[in-house]
């Protein structure tokens, strides 16, 4: 009986070792070589951010600037037969999904920071994000310095909270759990402006007529595409494709498709 148990146990150990090895290798494999062979890239994207990536309730598909950019990058990198698929991520799951090999790259309003660069490899910036202001159309606020001695609205955990104090140290900041609450507070005149990334504010302005962006960008928080740490070949090919899309006009076409006509949003600082 003992011999039988030993005989049964050994194959299980071998299977377990093989599985762990496979999982480990998944994260260490050369991602560019994999996608070049398969002609397929799995992108980690947002599905809750208007203009960048938002689920269309009618079609069930994620639509936005980042979806279109990911598709264009895929074709530019892998040719006409290249295909893209999308995995929904959040701010908390972006890096773990990348580390575990569930996605090949993350294109999800991810600000390039020194802390994140310790865990992932970033491409060059593809969107010049930074803190901006959203105000009613009849507001007298024209820039961030006008917020001194006034109340501004923000969302907890965003970099805008610190950014606004750097530019307007006497501003009073009211923080809310999400943008819906913060926007409701702005409509109720609980503050003179709402502050966060310019791209996110553009999406909020699009669905809230009567409000506009002002003051341009008063902080620097550009978005970059992230690949797993050490996947420099993948990052290099994405950078090359980005440069080619900028040169052939595709990038500007997508920017205009999604951001043109947003009240107060300046295309001048975004177009390449």
Automatic annotation (TrEMBL):
One family name in Pfam for this protein: SBP_bac_3
PROSITE patterns registered for this protein in UniProt: PROKAR_LIPOPROTEIN
SUPFAM superfamilies xref list: Periplasmic binding protein-like II (SSF53850)
A GO term from the CC aspect: membrane
GO terms for MF: ligand-gated monoatomic ion channel activity
Signal peptide: 1-22
Similarity comment: Belongs to the bacterial solute-binding protein 3 family.
Protein name: Glutamine ABC transporter substrate-binding protein
Species in which this protein is naturally found: Lactobacillus amylovorus
